[in-house]
Design goal:
Blueprint: E1 2-7, E2 12-19, E3 22-30, H1 35-49, E4 59-63, H2 69-86, E5 90-93, H3 95-101, E6 109-115, E7 120-129, E8 132-143, H4 144-154, E9 158-161, H5 164-175, E10 180-182, H6 192-204, H7 223-234
């Protein structure tokens, strides 16, 4: 089984190939460049390095949200275009689930934190039994106070990761009452390797969709949509 993984849900752009539970190649960049300029060239570079024939892949796993609205649209459009061109199914991977899967095997609870602005975070709660991931709280968009309260309620050690850590670090220090750590640099952001690895699991479980069916999960309205609704409510 050969899965192509794509993630452009945040500042990180990442492409990976996982074959039979073996990471063959990964290209990850955490730099402020437009993903529409980088994602396909990164895929081309990885394909050349590992002599990959894209027609040989079984499916395309894409980080399907939440995250940056623009980043999700770029990832979705790339995955859909490749799926249509290659005649391959897509695998929709929840962004926060894939972020948590970076820490597969960890014995503490896992709490990804993505900055959703306005003191909100895209988050969830997870634990692992070996490499088997259990979802304690499915991915959601909530206030940082709400998720930290749930972490405290569980009463167990937790690992935080994601771009929201830097944003909410002070709040965590002041309000988290259970033992906590922060994931190290090589696993604390989105990685297509985790997307593709989860994609293998989903593929064997039959959790695929067509390129036409795929659409991102934003979990909340865009700023433009919020402002439009607020304007209508004031009339």
């Amino acid at each position: 089984m050969k899965i192509l993984g794509l993630d452009s849900s945040g500042l990180v752009a990442s492409v990976a190939i996982v074959e039979d539970n073996d990471l063959k190649g990964e290209y990850t960049v955490n730099y402020k460049k437009t993903h529409s300029q980088t994602l396909l060239p990164m895929l081309d570079e990885v394909a050349k390095m590992i002599e990959l024939d894209l027609n040989s892949i079984d499916a395309i796993a894409v980080s399907g949200g939440p995250g940056s609205f623009t980043g999700l649209r770029i990832g979705s459009a790339t995955a859909k275009g490749l799926g249509l061109a290659l005649g391959k199914p897509l695998i929709h991977i929840p962004t926060v689930d894939a972020l948590a899967y970076n820490l597969a095997g960890n014995r503490d609870n896992i709490c990804p934190l993505m900055d959703a602005r306005r003191n909100q975070t895209y988050t969830g709660l997870y634990r692992f039994d070996g490499n088997q991931m259990e979802i304690i709280k499915p991915q959601c968009a909530v206030g940082i106070d709400e998720i930290i309260a749930e972490v405290n309620k569980l009463g167990q050690a937790v690992v935080f990761l994601g771009d929201g850590v830097a944003v909410f670090e002070t709040y965590i220090h002041e309000n988290c009452t259970v033992p906590y750590t922060f994931a190290p640099a090589h696993v604390n952001k989105q990685r297509a390797g985790a997307v593709a690895a989860l994609g293998e699991i989903y593929y064997t479980e039959g959790k695929t969709e067509t390129a036409e069916e795929h659409k991102p999960d934003y979990l909340r309205l865009s700023q433009a949509e919020r402002e439009r609704l607020e304007g209508e409510q004031k009339k």
